[in-house]
Amino acid sequence: MTRGRTNADIGPWGWRMVDVEFRVVSDRREGLLLTLGQAVIAHGFTLLRQRMAGDEDGVVLTMLVRGPQQNLATLEECVATHPLVTSFEATRPDAAPVETPPSITPHRCAEPPCAADSLRIEALVPQLTHDYPNIFVALLELQRELPEAHRELALSELGHRIGAWVQARDFAGVETTSTCDAIRRIALPAMRQIVQAQLQGEALHVSDSPFCRRGEHGPCCHFLRGMLGGLLAGSAQPMHVVETRCRNDGADICAFAFRTA
Question: What is the pTM of this model?
Fold first, then answer.
């Protein structure tokens, strides 16, 4: 049952977005977050944070998710009827939509992708999860064919979806104590599955981003930036990821900084 007030804004593809908190009770802990996290992602939602604890009723998993309002009913039915779930409740927190701080405003004016591009991106998600980590051929083709005005938002949102999927698949059981700990234990090993990455202080450096030097100027690693955001979406403290240096602008590496919201 869903109750409360909708926290909604417009997502990068022109869809109305909602934040919803799911409270799930199960008698089995193993595989619970991974399985339900995959369901969340499959319905176009992002897992913002999660918490798992035990009580007299069993294992209680709380997930805050954000995604398109048009998919909410089917996601709720999927979670409520899942064989691992013995009790389910969904509430919509009464809070203002998250705004992007001025310091990390996108580098170019960006427009939401058109309907055809959005459908293509949706169709690409299962292909990327099936082929992962061999994903760059499809991504570079998408980057070439998307209109420039749509590219940043589309690729960063797609990266966020894939990052959240990787986090649920590979790092669901990893507990972190701080932002730095989450970067070291989740973001760094996950990125090393697809690129050459290392930590320099609190920044993550990538030396071989395939998105650079393709006839454009300015930071261009939108997919990697979005993926880092998806990987860290479950951290206790919300954060934004910013590409501060890019080989596309002549730097020797691409650097990503992490700023708390």
Answer: 0.63
